Amino acid sequence: MAARRCDSALVTGANRGIGLELVRQLAEAPRPPSLIFAGCRDPAGPRAKDLKDLAEKHSNLVTIIRLDTSDPESIRQAAGEAGSRLAGRGLDLLINNAGVNTPGQLRDTGMKDMVDVFVTNTVGPLLVTKDFLPYLQRAASQPGSGVGVAGTTPLVINVSTLLSSMEKCPETFSMAPMYSYRASKAALNMLTRCLAEEFKKDGIVVTAIHPGWVKTDMGGPKAPVAVVDSAKGMLRVISTLTDKHSGMLLDWEGSSIPW
Ligand code: NDP
């Protein structure tokens, strides 16, 4: 039986930074997915301009969908819209990329900072995965899908960070205290583990990936990794994933990061 390939993808937070570059590289791949959903919370706003230009350039491949990952109703509507466009096909790749950071030290971190960051970085990926699950399951049930063969199994990628690692905390804490951000991504790692267990029966792989310290609005100008290289590395790692990597935290070069 011929192996399946990634034919449909959704990237959340796709209007700038790593998300935008992931969509660009997916669209410009030699064998691109035929349906790339670019999630964006404000497609009509000024921050969506680069994404709109990209979607216009690849209008046969890229579809912008309004998706605010901190708003359950927006997620539900986005899933409905994607479902109509998939028209019976499954979703092969979901990249939960949208994220926020408040670089607060302990004295600057209050309840609102903790809750707001958790809503976007932890709750959002859970709700998006839940509402898109029927399409991931549909992809898993298609002929040629197999968890042991890289590139054929539906994937959920949660974009995490080295800063989520408890073991690495003594090395990373002083340069980036970021209480709310670290805690929200550590919780995202646990969701990754739980979803990996739950989706074993479905043949869906769930992996967390650290994109590197990347030159974006969030990473800042001093970051050593160019967004092009981060996205390229992530997509290469994604293309190698099998059930062996489900529930793991990997970096953009494929190395495992301890919890
Ligand atoms: P940016 O700040 O450059 O971009 C963040 C993206 O997420 C934007 O498109 C933003 O949209 C979107 N977003 C934020 N909140 C929401 C929401 N509620 N709904 C939908 N979209 C939302 O960040 P990066 O590209 O650098 O980061 C992408 C991911 O990589 C994040 O999860 C981040 O935590 C992770 N990461 C980044 C690192 C780095 O060094 N850059 C290091 C480790 C991890 P909008 O324009 O509307 O705000």
Jot down its keywords:
binds NADPH dihydro-nicotinamide-adenine-dinucleotide phosphate, alpha/beta, 259 residues, 7 helices, 13% strand, single chain, 7-stranded parallel beta sheet, Rossmann fold
Q: Would you write up a description of this structure?
A:
The chain has 259 residues and is α/β, with parallel strands linked by helices. The chain has a single domain (8-251), classed as NAD(P)-binding Rossmann-like Domain (Rossmann fold), CATH 3.40.50.720. It is 40% helix and 13% strand. It is built from seven helices and seven strands, in the order E-H-E-H-E-H-E-H-E-H-H-E-H-E. The chain has helices at residues 17-27, 49-57, 72-86, 111-140, 169-172, 179-198, 227-240; strands spanning 8-11, 35-40, 62-66, 93-96, 155-159, 205-210, 249-251. A seven-stranded parallel sheet has the order 3-2-1-4-5-6-7, sandwiched between helices. The longest helix is centred in the middle third of the chain and has 30 residues, at 111-140. It is globular and about 50 Å long. The mean pLDDT is 95. Belongs to the short-chain dehydrogenases/reductases (SDR) family. One of its GO terms (molecular function) is oxidoreductase activity. This is C-factor. It comes from Megalops atlanticus (Tarpon). One of its GO terms (cellular component) is cytoplasm.
Brief account:
GO terms for molecular function: oxidoreductase activity. With 259 residues, the chain is of the alpha/beta class.
Summarize the topology.
Layout: E1 8-11, H1 17-27, E2 35-40, H2 49-57, E3 62-66, H3 72-86, E4 93-96, H4 111-140, E5 155-159, H5 169-172, H6 179-198, E6 205-210, H7 227-240, E7 249-251
Parallel strand pairs: 1-2, 1-4, 2-3, 4-5, 5-6, 6-7
Helix pairs in contact: 1-7, 3-4, 4-6
The structure holds NADPH dihydro-nicotinamide-adenine-dinucleotide phosphate.
GO cellular component, one term: cytoplasm
GO molecular function, one term: oxidoreductase activity
Pfam family, one: adh_short
